[in-house]
UniProtKB/TrEMBL annotation:
The keyword Repressor does not apply. Coiled coil: none annotated. GO terms for molecular function: oxidoreductase activity. Keywords: Oxidoreductase. Residues 29-376 form the FAD dependent oxidoreductase domain. This is Hydroxyglutarate oxidase. Pfam families: DAO. GO terms for cellular component: cytoplasm. It comes from Pseudonocardia autotrophica (Amycolata autotrophica).
Length: 400
């Protein structure tokens, strides 16, 4: 039986690995379960002061939601707690670029929010009212000006809003930077290490994997994405009530790629304010989504052809892009708590088992601040001063 571990050799944006016989037993302070953006970011933060071992079920990483995201930083996106985390993450992305020695993590791309019918117009009104006074909130935009910013629109919308501080995120560079940073802090990553059992071990925990590892740790951090509740159940810990929802994306060639630039600047991300579709230019294609939210059990999500067709139809009604084919399509799972806030911390009667879950559609854009907040809760330190969010709002205990 073999497993794969990071070798820790230097290199930018490469994953160096060696295949070796699995080490049967590990002792560590904290074991993090899950190698997506939630897992590697919180593991990196924790490794500043403690011994950390990260377990990833897949041989490659990232594979699931992190690798399948449209990866955009949008101030004002999501529920109130996520908006606070996204706002705090903006300066942290810039700091991480230097700290983790990555290429640019953010590339400016504004977001145009459209209300093309009654439902969309109502969405614009609600968005502006809810976020009034918040940092970097969207601003109302004249419908005619919306067509100047996005000449691909068939007609002026009934209502529009503009978010100027948004950006594309290099999610792979961010993930790779966190992973290398974890190794630089003497953390360990074991890939192909699917957790099969978790049990109490005195005052700590014993985690077993299907590959034969036995990991003893003072605390467990459950950052397993759509599997987070399943991991909790393995440990005999109450579920948080998380719901994975499938989101479909298709990359579509644009017959005239010149329309993807406006006066030398990239076309904005364009999103329906009623959350029924969005499009995002990427190279010579447009990423198209029907913004589907289909409940699905944790697993390897696959795109549904009907969802892809629905996204193309909706965008064809609003734009003149003339999308006629699909180069590739994929789907990922976005996992939500009932109130759509993050799920962090531990149940009082199950000390030492910590959730870092429920990131929904904001896992990458909120990762820097969320990881710092989660790490402070895990080790019992004060919340970061730049995160304007009461940790109790995110605590799993609110879900009882």
């Amino acid at each position: 039986m073999t497993t794969t571990v990071d070798s820790g050799r230097p290199g930018r944006h490469r994953f160096f690995a060696a295949t070796v016989a699995p080490v049967e037993s590990h002792d560590t302070d904290l074991v993090v379960i899950g190698g997506g953006i939630a897992g590697v970011s919180v593991a990196y933060e924790l490794a500043a002061h403690d011994r950390v071992l990260l377990l990833e079920a897949e041989v490659d990483m990232p594979v699931h939601s992190t690798a399948r995201s449209a990866a955009t930083y949008i101030p004002g996106h999501g529920s109130g707690p996520f908006r606070a985390l996204i706002d705090a993450s903006g300066p942290r992305f810039a700091a991480l670029q230097t700290e983790l020695d990555t290429p640019p993590l953010l590339s400016a791309r504004p977001v145009l929010h459209l209300g093309d019918d009654d439902e969309g117009a109502a969405g614009i009104v609600a968005m502006l009212a809810e976020q009034r006074g918040e940092p970097n909130a969207p601003v109302a935009l004249d419908p005619v000006q919306a067509c100047r910013y996005a000449p691909v629109l068939r007609r002026p919308p009934r209502a529009a809003a503009w978010t100027s501080g948004s950006a594309d995120i290099d999610a792979i560079a961010l993930h790779d930077g966190y992973r290398r940073g974890l190794r630089a802090r003497s953390g360990t990553v074991l890939r192909g290490a699917r957790v099969s059992a978790i049990s109490r071990d005195g005052s700590g925990w014993l985690v077993r994997t299907a590959a034969g590892h036995r990991v003893r740790a003072a605390a467990v951090v459950d950052a397993a994405g759509s599997w987070a509740d399943e991991v909790a159940a393995l440990a005999g810990v109450p579920r948080a009530g998380l719901t994975p929802l499938r989101r479909t994306i298709a990359a579509c060639p644009v017959p005239d790629p010149s329309v993807l630039r406006v006066d030398g600047s990239p076309l904005p991300l364009i999103a329906d304010a009623a959350e029924r579709w969005y499009l995002k230019p990427e190279a010579d294609t447009v990423l198209v989504s029907p913004a589907d939210r289909t409940p699905q059990a944790p697993g390897d999500a696959r795109p549904d052809e009907l969802d892809v067709a629905l996204g193309l139809d909706r965008i064809g009604e609003v734009t003149t892009l003339g999308l006629r084919s699909v180069r590739t399509a994929w789907a990922g799972l976005r996992t939500f708590a009932p109130d759509r806030a993050p799920v962090l911390g531990e149940w009082p009667d199950h000390p030492g088992f910590h959730f870092v879950a429920g990131q929904g559609g904001s896992g990458i854009e909120s990762a820097p601040a969320l990881a710092a907040l989660a790490a402070s809760m895990i080790v019992g330190r004060p919340a970061p001063a730049d995160v304007a969010l009461d940790p109790a709002v995110c605590s799993v205990t609110r879900l009882r």
